Each structure stands twice: as C-alpha cells, then as structure tokens.
Amino acid sequence: MAVRSKRAWTRPHDWAEVVLGLVALLTPLWASTDNAAMWTMIVLGALIALDGLLSLAVPGLVYGEGLQVVLGALLFIAPWVMTYTGLGVAAWSSWIIGALTVIAGLAALPVANSVHRGGMRTAH
Q1: Can you say whether residue 83 is alpha, beta or left, with left for phi > 0 and alpha for psi between -120 and 50 degrees?
Q2: pLDDT > 70? residue 1
Q3: Tell me, what DSSP letter sits at residue 85?
Q4: Which helix (H) or strand (E) holds 62?
Q5: What share of the chain has pLDDT > 70, as a percent?
Q6: Among 1, 13, 29, 20, which Cα is nearest to 112's?
Q7: Please, how many CA atoms are within 13 Å of residue 65, restricted to the half-sphere of its CB?
Q8: Which among 2, 12, 19, 25 could disulfide-bond with 45, CB atoms 3.0 to 4.6 Å apart, if both were Cys?
Q9: What is the rounded CA–CA span in Å between residue 22 and residue 16?
C-alpha cells in the first residue's frame, strides 16, 4: 500500500481534499449565504480542490499538503472572520469542511515527505 500511495492519482487523502473543496465550492447552491459567505466558500473551496488535484498529480509536493492545512484552517475560521456564524448551514459547512481538510492535509503530509525524500523509487 505504501508503494501505491507514491504514484500519481492514487492517494486517497488528496482525493478527499478534492471532494471537500468541491463541496465547499458548491455549498452556496443549497445553503443560505450572504455575499461574504458565498464568495469565501467559493474561493476557498476552489483553492482546496485545485491544490488537491495538484497534490494528486505531483505526489512529492510537500508544500501542497502544507497549503491544504492552511486553507482548511482559513475555511474553519472564516465564519467568525467574515461574520457569517448566524448562517447555520454555511457556517457549519465551513467548520466541518475546514476541519476535515486540515485532517486530510496532515494525514497526507508524511506520505508527501516520504515521496519527496525518496523520489519516486519503490521498495521491492
């Protein structure tokens, strides 16, 4: 399994990041939002999904996983900073998706470090 996770397009953590980003991006379609909440979720969701795709394409890109952690943290604190804590579904979506993005980024970091240090070599 460790060998498989070093190949491009196979890491489940990065696929989770793509899905989480897409859910954040699309949340304004079904949740009541104001302008700040809508654009915050669209922009951060798109960045999370795009960074997840980049991490899938280039498995040894360590800063991509670090960026996921930062983006997840930004999405988590966004309801307070952008003042949309009163918009229930939008706020809870930001908190949950943000926390899950941080967890996925942290879980993918050791694999990205391993691939970065060892290149794309596989163990026999």
Answers
A1: left
A2: no
A3: T
A4: helix 62-81
A5: 88
A6: 13
A7: 25
A8: 25
A9: 10
